[in-house]
Amino acid sequence: MTDKQIDKKEENQPAPLPTDVGTEAAAENKEAAPEAIEQALEEAKAAKAVEAIELPKIKAGMLVRVHHKIKEMSAKGEEKERIQIFEGLVIGAHGAGNKKTFTVRKVASGVGVEKIFPVSAPAVAKVEVIKQYRMRRAQPTYLRKGYKKKLKEVAVK
Description:
- The protein is built from 3 helices and 6 strands; from the N terminus they run H-H-H-E-E-E-E-E-E.
- The protein has a 6-stranded antiparallel β-sheet with strand order 4-3-2-1-5-6, with no helix packed on it.
- The protein is α+β, with helices and mostly antiparallel strands.
- The N and C termini lie far apart (80 Å).
């Protein structure tokens, strides 16, 4: 290419767009961005003021007492919150992380009742481990059918 052709190419190039002008500043801000994001997340957590409860490691075969928050409407239309305790045997734990759930079974008035509790739900106030039985299966669903083998208690870990 000759010098004349190079000059013509430079003349034909469009003017830089306004978004191209601040690219150096944007590159500098990318380094500071993770710090700003972390700070914003901390502020959001502080603003929510929701306490994350510590739950024990829940496994099948544990006899647990789940404190469950229940919201009710009174006759006057006022919203009341109370804690109801559901005590039973854990017959399974499913999922991982925030999506983890566990199933608790108890027999009330001769009828088997099962509830599935999400671990990360704000409705679960507290989970107490009362006893732990030795289980050889991850999900002892055979307890649903009335098969009541004598369960051996082990120390709660």
